[in-house]
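May I ask for a protein sequence together with how it folds?
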Amino acid sequence: MEFKEILLRIRKNRNLSQEEMAERLLITRQAVSRWEMGETIPNIETLKIISKEFDVSINTLLGSPRTLICQCCGMPMYEDSVISKDVDGSFNEDYCKWCYVEGEFVYDSLQDLINFLVPSMSSQYDMTEDDVYHMFSEFLPKLKHWK
């Protein structure tokens, strides 16, 4: 789905006119119209405002061009509902909501995270705890948070 379709869906789902959406974003109605027609797209600063105002990630606004992966635990983040948020309420697309909460990381060390993951993942995927431990011990240190 393209930005213009996503923006239109956001506006319609909230029962807003182009004028009302423009007022919330502090822009002109004509800008909203041009975006919905696909003539232009907003700059990154405006995308951030749209994201925060309508509680939708920039990745989603851009049509989910990439699969987001938590840079702490490695979990794929396919929906905005699992993406963490910073203290100001903006999305932090680097981390899931279970690893990063209100500006703080949940796990103090890589070992704490691995110790949490091993029992649940071994039973969920029918793997031995040793296999899961080895898998995460090799994979997780490659992620941004643990480098």
In short: The beta strands are 68-69, 76-77, 83-85, 91-96, 100-101, 104-105. The longest helix spans residues 110-124.
